[in-house]
Amino acid sequence: MIIGIPREIKDHEYRVALTPAGTALLTAEGHRVVVQGQAGTGSGYPDEEYRKSGASVVDNPEEIFARADLIVKVKEPLESEYSMLRPGLVLFTYLHLAGIPGLTEALLERQVTGIAYETVQLPDGTLPLLTPMSEVAGRLAVQVGAHYLEKAQGGRGMLLAGVPGVPPGKVAILGAGVVGANAAMVALGLGAQVTLMNRDANRLRLLSPMLRGNLQTVVSTPESVAEVVRDSDLVIGAVLVPGAKAPRIVTRKMVNSMRPGSVVVDVSVDQGGCFETTRPTSHSAPVYVEEGVIHYCVTNMPGAVPRTSTQALCNATFPYIVKLAGAGALNAMKQDPSLASGLNTHEGRITHPAVEQALRASAPAGRQNPQR
User: Fold this and answer.
1) Contact 149, 160 (CB under 8 A)
2) Would the CATH topology of 2-126+306-362 be identical to that of 131-299?
3) Does an H or E element contain 81, and which?
4) What 3-state DSSP class applies to 290?
5) Is 270 designated active site?
């Protein structure tokens, strides 16, 4: 199989979908790997390392999309890449289609087999290809939030850790999944006062003895969210419904109740965000102010630390790439139900129920999706 690795073009996106070590293993199995020049440079992998691993390095993405049977990326294709999509192409990447109707339409029109990292799901419900980036994003969220609480960044001028005689900052984390648990761990490590919220009390019960420090856990209700958000200096949105749009659990009125100079970090922005005031931002322009509150809503947060993120992501995705290359996409998904759960589009149809439900309202009139 010919496997294509284009260079990521999203703003300040330096991750790459395959390392030279992974390339060497694939070429040793008889596969051909085509990498766009400088695709790995931002993660510390120069073109020469790919050549030594057996890859062909080419200058333009058009050649990669035209030659490859399987395109492996980190982030979803942007509009400038839609024209390179073609029937029969297999695309393996983060897609987040619930928040990008235009990309969904492009995949359907061009009959691309789109397999999304974020909906690959194991029998126990875990999301193995979302987990490593959720770990990175959760830890980064506290680091970013602490930075924007500094007065020079427009924040309240607070140190999350506090000092002797001065209380620490208050951090609210909405959602106790992988992002939320990792954010809580870092915030507690800094010495902040942390409130971890989740709809499922059993999840809070599980995490509570694992997280040491100034922690309280609260079951999420509209009333409890409003109270906790109002009293917090930093609020981290870590809500996830696999494949679907994130529920808007924080209203504009709740944001308005926060103290001026407080900070919101919405990690769920890839799926539409869980704050009513959320809108996507980029690493070039990461923040904006709404209701006197600083909002950080970058859609590719882990791209800020590409060396760590690339290694963590490739550790998780590589076994699936091997399956796709070895058996072909359809056979690989028949053999591995968890990989099959990642299928979002195929032969002009939406194949994932949650994605279909999220996009139904925005789908063009007359589109039919009779089979899954």
Assistant:
1) yes
2) yes
3) helix 79-82
4) strand
5) yes
Q: How far apart are CA 34 and CA 4, in angstroms?
A: 5
The answer to whether 125 and 242 are in contact (CB under 8 A) is: no
Domain ranges of the chain: 2-126+306-362, 131-299
Q: Which of 31, 270, 295, 352 is catalytic?
A: 270
Q: Does domain 131-299 have CATH number 3.40.50.720?
A: yes
Rounded to 5 degrees, what are φ and ψ at 316?
-85, -40
The predicted-structure confidence for 118-161, as pLDDT tens digits, reads as follows: 999 999 999 999 999 999 999 999 999 999 999 999 999 999 99
What is the rounded CA–CA span in Å between residue 323 and residue 344? 18
Q: pTM for this one? A: 0.89
- What is 2-126+306-362's CATH number? 3.40.50.720
Round to whole Å and give the CA distance between 200 and 209.
16
Q: Is 283 a catalytic residue?
A: no
- Our CA dihedral for 331, 337, 341, 346, rounded to 10 degrees, sits at 20
Asked whether the predicted pLDDT for residue 367 surpasses 60, the reply is no
Q: Is the pLDDT of residue 361 over 70?
A: no
Residue partners of 133: CB distance under 8 A and separation at least 6: 94, 302, 309, 312, 313
Q: Which two tokens stand for residue 371?
A: 């089979």
Residue-by-residue DSSP string for 251-271: -HHHHHTSPTT-EEEEGGGGG
Distance from C-alpha of 7 to C-alpha of 132, rounded to nearest angstrom: 21
Please tell me which residue in 96, 295, 346, 352 is annotated as part of the active site. 96
pLDDT in tens, 196-221: 999 999 999 999 999 988 999 999 99
